[in-house]
């Protein structure tokens, strides 16, 4: 059965309420690891970005990286959290071959940030999802099961990733369906990207998501038994996995069964979730305060310094765009999808002097061209300044919108500005009255019948005459001026 | 040159007078150690190559007229729980029988930078767990004072090599008395500095919040000099202290008149033994030197043993998780599954005491037991610290026995781990409070077995502690009573 097919009738489904909480791990993009000085790069040969500390060598000790703390605080602030003046590191103990110390150095009852929220906008409705906590921890390494000599006999371990800083963001069980989950993740990712703490590239494992899912009868106060769906590697799969898991649990309960607390994995191939061995889920992590690290103290002064480096965040930016530029909320949402796009738009708007037209160009021709070539906005051959200049030319009436649309692809392919292209190709709009005069006179002389019609009261015929002038000028005539000239000569 | 009697000062003078070279001292120490070791098993390995290179470097510096450092040419032994780059470090465990560390402990770096010559790695209880050195996978160490007896533990090898004179000073580690108790058993000076005074970077962790590196010497000055060299802030250890390191030599004036000494009554109750008598004679000697002696109380002492064995086993259970058969440890060959690999490797690699402590520690941290054990133990630990703070409001130093009894015979207490744990009663409180403490020789029993007197002072008060110990030593110890 595919996850898109409904396992339970819609009317039964409607009597249940899903309850979802998300745990998101975000790799912080610091240059060095959380507890040692090794680089955090992706793709280095196995076991080369390592040292005694991140290898968990006997006798080695962790030392907390200051910039990791700053990144975590930024993340906490972006999530509207309270940043604790004092937080405590704790060991999370478990055995795994790619966990060299036999424990992660995480945080437990006193995380760096807590009590925050993310606002989402789903189906034209605003909703606030609570963020319970955001805590720091070190990433584990990677177990590699194939691709090496004797891979059928051995698992290989690469510890380059070990010690990469992670922040785990735990939501309240406030999410009620997969659309909200999707929106929450999108918003979270956007926030992390905006503040520059992570690129959140899921393919590189920079953002990983686990979901706690349960269902209960609508109106019930008690939560149902939850299952944890782990390691889903795209937002779309999170949505599909949640849809499937909700259906599965309702169907199970409806058929007289019981949901068991367990860890489940999602298979993109079947669209289903399946149970991991329950033994794996029965971890007792035996948390206790990490004796090798002092409590993390963040003074008000330090917090203030970090706060002062925070950029304007998407929610505030969207509101300002609507207010300041008079664009629609939806457009504001699109233009704030990434920090780079919002900066591009604002630059183009400033240069052009016509924010709404600039917005349309950014979301229209520019976005189309970027998408066609798979480019990021930062890689656009047409800079924000140049797009702004193009829009300014339209606004000043020096070119028509139609002509601009012809110029833009040339800017895209050459990287040149609009003016340079117009000069080179002789595309400058004719706004010179004497030059236009001659063309207008010529058109009037060639079309006496239409002139008669106009004079006879059928003024709509002027559109035809404008067209003729435009044609004669090979599109370079300023249409507004042509219109005025024609009227002057005919009236 | 009598290698067995050399002191740091004696070596400095001899080198300066060109009576001998650092290389000659080094060869003498290596030769003597090689000859003595079959009797005591105090060294697990002699690092002759590294020692010769270090000694030659000292000689070359001296030949150029340069300052060769505070430990120039001094033969040093290093407990085998402290890592040495390129020199096998076993921690007294089968688990690490082939482990060659890729880096040096900070203390090792510092003592070599000061001209120290590391001649070998000293035997110890496995992962520093034990009070008799009988828990080494490489055989017990015998006490050079009486080869039928244990040298104490866990730094038994480090104490024995200094007592026998194959090293002038040595590094040990102390978590619950592992420096002071063997110092006491072997009749040498052993110092547990303030927690954070010496970097733990490169000390293989047993119980991180209690582990200390500290020096052994045949006299107070030598131990203090070694401490001065290795002490101080280290960026590689977040728990190392920023406090500046004083010149301890300047503190040792011999003048302790008016110094206030406290005798914690809980430590003397029921101590009707030769050990107790010797300590009281030591106290009399201190009075003669002008110290004022009074009784003080440390009421939380009665919970110290339980508190200590909960915290140290909890931390140990986590610290020893990394020995899992995946990396540098031995790996049992016959495992079919990952779980079997862990089980067999740890089953074969660890000795009985390690397993006992790992199980205890795992239990006290388990879900549902954490509050009842670990959290409560942390509260008791605070109470113990408060007791000391209160006492140090009244007195400058505390005097207690180090151990209820002198060195016992090999095998005598091996079957009674609880009795072994209880014998740590006088030493664990200092570790729990993180205060400096030391054992200074305080005479011998009728059978000729050494007894150590423990001196404890407040945090970072190693200076006054050394002054008291050195004045006592200078006055002839108990003979001065
Ligand atoms: Zn590293």
CATH-wise, what's the superfamily of the domain at 3-251 in chain B? Amidase signature (AS) domain
**pLDDT < 50 runs, ≥5 residues of chain A:** none
Gap between N and C termini of chain A, in Å? 74 Å
Record the strand order, biggest sheet of chain B.
Answer: 1-3-2-4-6-5-10-11-9-7-8
Which protein chains are joined by the largest interface, and how many residues does each one contribute?
A: A-B, 28 and 43 residues
The CATH architecture category of the domain at 3-251 in chain B equals Alpha-Beta Complex
Binned strand content of chain A = 15-25%
Highest CATH level, the class of the domain at 3-251 in chain B? Alpha Beta
Task: Looking at this protein, list some descriptive labels.
heterodimer, A: about 500 residues, Arc Repressor Mutant, subunit A, 3 domains, nine-stranded mixed β-sheet, 17 helices, 16 strands, B: alpha/beta, Amidase signature (AS) enzymes, about 40% helix, globular
Brief rundown of the structure:
With 491 residues, chain A is α+β, with helices and mostly antiparallel strands. In chain A, 40% of the residues lie in helices and 19% in strands.
Structure description:
The complex is a heterodimer of chains A (491) and B (481). With 491 residues, chain A is α+β, with helices and mostly antiparallel strands. Chain A folds into three domains: 10-301, no CATH class; 312-425, no CATH class; 433-490, Arc Repressor Mutant, subunit A (Orthogonal Bundle). Chain A is built from 17 helices and 16 strands. In chain A, helix 9 (339-352) packs parallel to helix 11 (384-395) and helix 14 (433-446) packs across helix 16. Chain A is elongated and about 95 Å long. Chain B is α/β, with parallel strands linked by helices. Chain B has a domain at 3-251: Amidase signature (AS) domain (Amidase signature (AS) enzymes), CATH 3.90.1300.10. In chain B, 41% of the residues lie in helices and 13% in strands. Chain B has 17 helices and eleven strands. In chain B, helix 5 (156-164) runs parallel beside helix 6 (180-186) and helix 11 (304-319) crosses helix 14 (371-394). The radius of gyration of chain B is 21 Å and the shape is globular. The model of chain B has no long low-confidence stretch (mean pLDDT 96). The interface between A and B is large, with 28 and 43 residues. Bound molecules: zinc ion (ZN). Zinc ion binds at residues 33, 36, 38, 50-51, 53-54, 163 of chain A. Residues 33, 36, 38, 50-51, 53-54, 163 of chain A line the site of zinc ion (ZN).
